[in-house]
Design goal:
Layout (H helix, E strand, L loop, with lengths): L1 H18 L9 E2 L10 H16 L7 E3 L15 H4 L5 E7 L3 H4 L16 H21 L3 E6 L20 H17 L3 E2 L13 E2 L4 E2 L1 H8 L8 E3 L23 E3 L2 H7 L1 E5 L1
Parallel strand pairs: 1-2, 2-3, 3-4, 4-5
Antiparallel strand pairs: 6-7, 8-10, 9-10
Helix pairs in contact: 1-2, 5-6, 6-7
Length: 275
């Protein structure tokens, strides 16, 4: 069964690699999602190697996201061997982070020891220790890192479809978790994505049914202030504004407003520049 599954997997990737070969380099591939729950490090590496060979036939420089097997969470990328990492210069290592699981999954009825509170110095020290281990490894192997998933359950187990609450993280703790983990990733130059599976899921940030945000968590993940001396940061998303901006001057003052350069937006989440 495993050999047949690998053959199907390779066929799928041949089609993907062919179909997307002319797409911009900003389109990334990720070979497998969380393979470590079912496969050893050697099994994952074997499949990674086979699929990467297929991808490189017509996507020679596209960035490919990879992780290891046998261990999960922050340890997963460190299971990748030097041989594999040195075989390709366009790899991004990834890991998912839901530690401590009795907090991030505390609204689940199957959680035997739920903890609805997070944010002590000891809690934060664990995140720092785990992320610093990944950062040290990243520096040693010269490979960038994507924090591919993280998040904590909705406050009081809120179901945004039904409006029903139950057990789950308290407001301050859910906010603190998203804020601290996001900043810990940024401090170490990890790219990050937060998990959101929709209105009925246990972890919601964008409420699709009415197209609104769970604003405190969204802002905590984005993690920047609204203004500084020259920019209005995130004028559409983070600062809750969705209308056109104008500049009003007084006296003899002269000013103009521009969209910030892409480099400004990517580096500092800035959207407008006042000159």
């Amino acid at each position: 069964d495993r050999l047949a599954a690998i053959d199907r997997f390779k066929a799928i990737w041949r089609d993907i690699a062919t179909s997307f070969q002319n797409k911009p380099e900003t389109v990334l591939f990720e070979i497998m999602n969380e393979p470590y729950f079912d496969m050893s490090a050697s099994e994952v590496e074997n499949i990674n190697t086979q699929i990467l060979t297929i991808i490189r036939q017509n996507n020679p420089t596209r960035n490919v996201i990879v992780t290891g097997g046998g261990v999960n969470s922050w340890q997963a990328p460190m299971a990748l061997s030097d041989t594999f990492l040195q075989s390709d210069t366009h790899l991004i290592a990834t890991f998912h982070y839901y530690i401590p699981f009795n907090f991030t999954n505390s609204s689940s009825p199957t959680q035997s020891n739920p903890d609805y509170s997070w944010g002590t110095a000891a809690d934060k020290a664990i995140v720092d220790d785990h992320f610093s281990q990944v950062k040290t490894w990243s520096n040693q192997k010269n490979i960038p890192v994507l924090l591919g998933e993280f998040g904590a359950d909705n406050v009081n187990g809120m179901n945004y479809t039904t409006g029903i609450t139950g057990n789950g993280p308290d407001t301050a703790s859910r906010l603190a978790y998203h804020q601290y983990v996001s900043q810990a990733a940024r401090n170490r130059d990890f790219t990050l994505t937060v998990w959101d599976a929709g209105d009925q899921s246990k972890k919601t940030i964008y409420i699709q049914s009415d197209e609104t945000w769970v604003k405190d968590i969204r802002n905590a993940v984005l993690g920047s202030t609204c203004t500084n001396q020259m920019y209005i940061n995130n004028a559409y998303v983070e600062c809750n504004y969705d209308y056109s901006w104008n500049v009003i001057t007084t006296g003899s003052a002269i000013a103009k407003i521009n969209n910030a350069k892409p480099s400004d937006a990517f580096n500092n989440t800035q959207s407008l520049e006042i000159m």
